[in-house]
Amino acid sequence: MKKVAVIGCGSYMDSGDGCPGEWRCLKAASLGDGNFEEPSQVVAFVKCECPGRALATNVNMAMKLSEIKPDAIYLSSCCVKAMPGCPYSDPEEKAQNIEKKTGIKVVLGTHDYH
Ligand code: SF4
Questions:
Q1: How many domains does the chain have?
Q2: Range of 59's domain?
Q3: C-beta of 70 in contact with ligand 1 (< 6 A)
Q4: How does pLDDT run along the chain (114 residues), one tens digit per residue?
Q5: In a domain, 23, yes or no
Q6: Rounded Cα distance, 77 and 92, in Å
Q7: Given the CA of residue 55, which atom of ligand 1 is nearest to it?
Q8: Residue 56 maps to which CATH number?
């Protein structure tokens, strides 16, 4: 089974009317739905915090502390598609930074659930 890390948008998760990270990404990963090619084990869930400056460092730290290197890192659908979008950086920029810092492929988006 593939091991994955998921990154959620903290602003969206804390807004109260969005997904607080409790099920959609986790369901998609466990069933192999959405952008997950197969059922996958979530080994880390990292919450981005505005303005996102520490995101790549925090993902790296989560990997080090868990001592599990994921096969892929997923930027959640709320990081990639939520409207209004992130005012600080676009998803591609975030993905590039994380890939550079971790050496692990970043996938844009997790699921299409509503
Ligand atoms: S920096 Fe952007 S992606 Fe990160 S929590 Fe803030 S709004 Fe969400």
A1: 1
A2: 2-108
A3: no
A4: 999 999 999 999 888 667 888 899 999 999 999 999 999 999 999 999 999 999 999 999 999 998 999 999 999 999 999 888 999 999 999 999 999 999 999 999 999 998
A5: yes
A6: 13
A7: 4
A8: 3.40.50
